[in-house]
Amino acid sequence: MTKKQLIMAKSIELFAEYGLEATSVQQITERCGISKGAFYLYFKSKDELIFSIIDDFMSSFIANIEQAVSSQEDRGKLLYDFLYAVFTKFEEQADFAKIFLKEHSFSLNRDLLQTLKNYRSMFNRLLLSVIQKQYSELKADMQLELFFSINGFMKGYSEFILVDQLPADLERICRAIVEKAGIIARYAHISSISEDYLEALGVEPEISKEAVITLLKETVQENKHDPLVCESAFLLMEDLEKPQLKDVFIEGLLNNIRKNNSGKWAAYMYRQYKMKKSGE
Q1: Residue 30 and residue 28: Cα distance in Å, rounded?
Q2: Labelling 167: which of 79, 91, 94, 209 has CA 20 to 30 A away?
Q3: Shortest CA distance to 198 belongs to which of 151, 156, 155?
Q4: 279 with 203: CB under 8 angstroms?
Q5: d(Cα 122, Cα 135) in Å, to the nearest integer?
Q6: What is the largest CA-CA distance in the chain?
Q7: What does the buried/exposed string (b/e) look like for 94-112 if buried means 16 or more CB atoms within 10 Å of the residue's CB?
């Protein structure tokens, strides 16, 4: 664990104990056993630290979900795999998630709010794509209705697991939501949500070529002793500048770089960027 990772890990412990606003930089440095000077080498302020913690968690969260879904060839199991990946991550990072569920008074800065909005749009896009693939027979308005219903089920069960801290059988919860989704898909006929709802949710994330290249460069830096990861990342960067690789070859390169969270995130963002460009 690097010193930066240590600061982030100990900060989460303190935030869980005392809350975001009540925790001071002094408490963080004492818990880490470092000086304030060492803290400010990595973070300019506590707000920047909080931003980094959220960014680290959410990028890993989205990338893990995307990988679980993209590796599932059976369309009938897509929703289950999506749900299981989500709830497993919540359970693994329960302390982190509870901090932000309880911290209603914390005022987020504009940049952080935009970042959270972007991650939310990516999550929503993943869920909608799962529904469109698994329930392709449904009309678009009922797919949206199903999207809205599943989101509600997930929020309710998340509070059940994280806030109430009651024993939870994740497999059973996921099967229960899939069963309810199937009933809605089969028998529901009334649509209450308009397509404007998608725009309000920000389903389309803002993804630039430069941002994807930066992520690929970070992947190279974190895996500089792994020639396969580095070469794959360089080939992907070249393809962004001058597209010439076949889709099947690109998928192989993306699989090569998914060795840690940075690689998973870069692979996810690369795919989303390519999908966006192909749709233009």
Answers
A1: 5
A2: 79
A3: 151
A4: no
A5: 20
A6: 62
A7: eebbbbbeeeeeeebeeeb
Domain 3-43 maps to which CATH number in 1.10.3720.10, 3.30.200.20, 3.60.40.10, 1.10.10.60?
Answer: 1.10.10.60
Output the six-digit token pair for 60.
């890993």
Q: How many CB atoms lie within 10 A of CB 120?
A: 16
The answer to whether residue 173 scores a pLDDT higher than 60 is yes
**Structural domain boundaries of the chain?**
3-43, 48-201, 209-279
Q: Residue by residue, what is the 3-state secondary structure of 71-103? A: CCCCHHHHHHHHHHHHHHHHHHCHHHHHHHHHC
- The CB-based long-range contact list for 2-6 (8 Å cut-off, 24+ gap) reads 3/32, 3/34, 3/38, 3/42, 4/42, 6/32
Fold classification of 48-201 (topology level): Tetracycline Repressor; domain 2 (1.10.357)
Higher pLDDT, 269 or 216: 216
Closest listed residue to residue 236, CA positions, set 225, 250, 217: 250
- CB atoms near residue 132 (< 10 Å): 16
**Per-residue confidence (pLDDT) for residue 203, from 0 to 100:** 59
Task: Reduce the DSSP state of residue 244 to 3 states and report it.
Answer: coil
pLDDT (tens digit per residue) in 19-64: 777 889 999 999 999 999 999 999 999 888 988 888 888 888 888 8
Tokens 């939310």 belong to residue: 120
Model confidence over 55-106: pLDDT tens digits? 888 888 888 888 888 877 788 899 999 999 998 888 887 777 666 655 544 4
Q: How far, in Å, CA of 15 to CA of 8, rounded?
A: 10
